[in-house]
Specification:
The protein is an alpha/beta fold. Helix content is 42%, strand content 21%. The structure holds nicotinamide-adenine-dinucleotide (NAD). Nicotinamide-adenine-dinucleotide binds next to helix 1 and helix 4.
């Protein structure tokens, strides 16, 4: 069984653990630096075994050394967004936390695949890549597959059909700079504009971009965790089962769209070795302009956290 460590046993980490163990994707080590939290979640999860008639392979601890030799490490540690707080506001605090965690991953899990979830995800994935020194195909971020799922759900609601029939593409940075691509969105192979007019499409795109903030504002404290944990489990499953499936992840660019040394969300084939192929969709000039705008912002943010790398 794969050893999968989740660092950060909060809302996203705890629920990701449940999904991974109940789908038997691997055995999970849940770690949180808050004393007792991960252990409490482990006990609670184990207490459900007799009810669900399943065996749960899960450990909960505040001892980071327990991640040793994990095949996959997922970083969900950090602060969640509060109402009125942008993902970027979290930058410094979460960079500090990620710096410490990435150092431990480098020390204890020399050959693991690392999936970064904490926000701002594209920046923290870059930081994790730099600190671990792992190969780029083994360090990537979860973000735009969640955005694509939200886009699919909103289209499905608009058309009153199942989200399973909707195939969406979202690229770019996870957050306000994301770029949903209705032009490449299909419903059972048929272009979206056969179903919705331009005005409706741009409304749904706007709702997709704002979905995270909408949930933050309604929750009053913290951010989304049901769909994010499902997006994590989806990626981990693709690795463990060597599916080589196309999933949008934040990946290290080396020439795609003439961009280098940055992490950005693009569709990639995910399998046992992590990212097996990046498949950047062709963009028109308008889309490229949106992408370049968020790249500029990401580069500025990288400069803000550069002190944690050097
Ligand atoms: P949460 O506050 O419920 O949990 C975070 C946990 O991290 C806390 O339990 C905290 O004690 C722990 N933690 C802090 N520093 C730590 C350290 N050094 N080592 C171990 N644990 C540590 O937050 P959440 O809702 O679970 O969200 C977690 C992160 O995921 C946030 O940064 C959030 O913005 C991000 N997130 C990202 C996406 C995405 O699409 N990429 C989606 C949802 C949430």
């Amino acid at each position: 069984m794969y050893k999968i460590s989740i660092i950060g046993a909060g809302n996203v980490g705890g629920l990701a653990a449940l999904r991974l163990i109940s789908e038997r994707i691997g055995e999970v080590v849940l770690v949180d630096k808050l004393k007792g939290l991960a252990e409490a979640k482990m006990l609670d999860l184990k207490d459900s075994q007799a009810l669900t008639k399943q065996d749960y392979y899960v450990k909960g601890t505040d001892d980071i050394t327990q991640i040793k030799d994990s095949e996959i490490v997922i970083i969900t540690a950090g602060l969640a967004r509060q109402p009125g707080m942008s993902r970027e506001d979290l930058l410094i605090k979460n960079a500090q936390i990620t710096q410490e965690i990435a150092g431990n991953i480098k020390k204890f899990c020399t050959s693991s695949i690392v999936i970064v979830v904490s926000n701002p995800v594209d920046i923290l994935t870059y930081l994790t890549f730099k600190i671990t020194g792992f190969k780029p195909h083994k360090v990537f971020g979860m973000g735009i597959s969640l955005d694509a799922a939200r886009f699919a759900n909103l289209i499905a609601e608009e058309l009153n059909l199942s989200p399973n029939l909707v195939e969406t593409v979202v690229v770019g940075s996870h957050g306000e700079g994301m770029l949903p691509l209705p032009r490449l969105t299909k419903i059972r192979g048929v272009d979206l504009d056969k179903f919705l007019d331009a005005e409706k499409i741009s409304q749904v795109v706007k709702m997709t971009v704002e979905r995270g903030a909408q949930i933050v504002s309604l929750l009053g404290s913290g951010s989304a965790y049901f769909a994010p944990s499902a997006a994590i489990a989806d990626i981990v499953k693709a690795i463990v089962k060597d599916e080589k499936r196309l999933i949008g992840v934040s990946c290290y660019l080396n020439g795609e769209y003439n961009l280098k040394d940055i992490y950005l969300g693009l569709p990639a084939r995910i399998g046992r070795s992590g990212i097996e192929q990046i498949i950047p969709p062709e963009l028109n000039s308008e889309e490229e302009a949106v992408l370049n705008k968020s790249v500029k912002k990401l580069r500025e943010h990288i400069e803000v956290i550069r002190k944690f790398i050097d």
